Amino acid sequence: MKVRAFNGSPRKEWNTATLLRHALQGAASQGAETELIHLYDLHYTGCVSCFACKRKGSTSYARCAVQDALTQPLALAVAADAIIIGAPIYIGAVTGMMQAFIKRLIFPFAGRQDNRHIIHAFMNTVG
Q1: What are the pLDDT digits (tens) for 58-104?
Q2: Which of 26, 43, 100, 123 is deepest in the core (most CB within 10 A)?
Q3: Over 80: is that where the pLDDT of 117 sits?
Q4: Cα dihedral sign for 127, 10, 14, 74?
Q5: Residue 5, SS3?
């Protein structure tokens, strides 16, 4: 089993990162392969609404077509058996880096009938 955690906090050693590390330790104790990715180490943008991920038959169908530092982490998230996301709440919402990550992760699957249950469960968990 592969479990990936994504830290949406600019601080690598504070509360959010600590909680994510503990969650990954629990997963590792059950035999999971784990990895913690700090989103603030990466330079990327949010969704650019190109819709390349929606075009059936395209090379980017069901995955974000934007090629930047988030390309590899998105692939790791999609290939994982479980993902854990953590971010502090600033002014009533998760950080902008986490928002951009979530939108680029989820948008390629949104509206597809075969993944509706996944999107619904994810969005209910995130809020």
Answers
A1: 787 888 888 999 999 999 998 899 999 999 998 988 999 999 999 98
A2: 100
A3: no
A4: positive
A5: strand
| CATH (one of 3.30.479.10, 3.40.1030.10, 3.40.50.1240, 3.40.50.360) for 2-126 | 3.40.50.360
Distance of alpha carbon 61 from alpha carbon 108, whole angstroms: 7
DSSP string, 26-76: HHHHTT-EEEEEEGGGS---------GGGSTTSTTTTS----STTHHHHHH
- CA-based nearest residue to 100, from 39, 20, 58: 39
Residue 78's CB is within 10 A of a number of other CB atoms, namely: 15
Secondary structure element (H or E) that encloses residue 19, with its range: helix 15-29
